[in-house]
């Protein structure tokens, strides 16, 4: 009989499985993009990271790769060991990381390339850094979910809740049954991606040991312990309350838990103790002042970031408006030029081909595709394209009222649009790409979780666990910023939806 667990724990496990599946699908997109580059050579990329020529890739070498490509990772050694289950990667481990799993032909072609030690192109270097960055960021996100779950049930109990046949293995049907029991649906490709991550033996079944490894959080002893009294979403450090009489009885030299034998001080000892206590009070006051100053600096940095995002988004809005004002431009025609097979949706490969057709070579395909793919299902739809390409202050009726030419006929880009319109389309995508690089650089200073939570707490003044557009506007008003923050709020979440802490945090780490 299956072990019974709470509804909250079941939902949390579903979230973990979904997150693992999504990570694998995103990683697979990067692997395919990397291996399709004709100049990509796996061995050359491995030796580019193996700076000490030891035939091993170590955490510090990955750090250097990430820094050179404007990425940042916290707790690298711990995450490296947890993500790859090793202290270093050899060449075979590296191949398993970068070769596609779903495209066997591309995997074989890439693996069979003649080893060389030629220089690695910048674009290949960046894509490789993207793959490592994805693995680390998702490891951090998963760690938080797993820690929450481990506080309620252990891995064995969770395993038993899925193992309805009590045969100590889990297959596709077990997971499908578990998701349906929670009113959710896990598509076949999502389940396959999940098994690629967890089923290391490729048996189509997950054992108890594999399941334990999936749910086991990092050792608490490896996590840094905060010494201040500020609260974060993970921890609440409370200070014990003592009476004033007891405080006067404890000398500064006493260790925690040590019983004080004497109840009175001599005049000299009392004077010495009061002096020590005064010094301690001054130190605490200075520390509190420093924390307050740091928090105010964090607030100011957030305001600066918000203003930078607003400025860049407003420039994009101007380009969008000019594009919509072009007589020959139609959003539906634009989408159908992407949707070559008239399926109503565009995958990453079709999107990459579209960018080639409009001669955009320096755009990061994966970043742009993931930005447009708002529901993260691996496809871009008309609504996604329309939202990206349309100004926020223009009605959808104005955009749709111009009739499309003929969505069932194939046109070249020059047949659909004039040169001026094509230039505006190119300018919109190039400007978005440039904006993202600037914003990513600005966001680096907010990777401290404590600082993020403090700002979120300030925005969430009613302590609902979320904030809305009016709350964000009110926060900016405190700093005499009177600009409409609509475009900034749109970047943080959705205009008609409140933003919770997880969504707020994702803006800074993605």
TrEMBL record:
<feature type="domain" description="EF-hand">
    <location>
        <begin position="326"/>
        <end position="361"/>
    </location>
</feature>
<feature type="domain" description="EF-hand">
    <location>
        <begin position="447"/>
        <end position="482"/>
    </location>
</feature>
<dbReference type="InterPro" id="IPR011992">
    <property type="entry name" value="EF-hand-dom_pair"/>
</dbReference>
<feature type="domain" description="EF-hand">
    <location>
        <begin position="186"/>
        <end position="221"/>
    </location>
</feature>
<dbReference type="InterPro" id="IPR002048">
    <property type="entry name" value="EF_hand_dom"/>
</dbReference>
<protein>
    <recommendedName>
        <fullName>EF-hand domain-containing protein</fullName>
    </recommendedName>
</protein>
<dbReference type="InterPro" id="IPR052603">
    <property type="entry name" value="EFCB6"/>
</dbReference>
<dbReference type="GO" id="GO:0005509">
    <property type="term" value="F:calcium ion binding"/>
</dbReference>
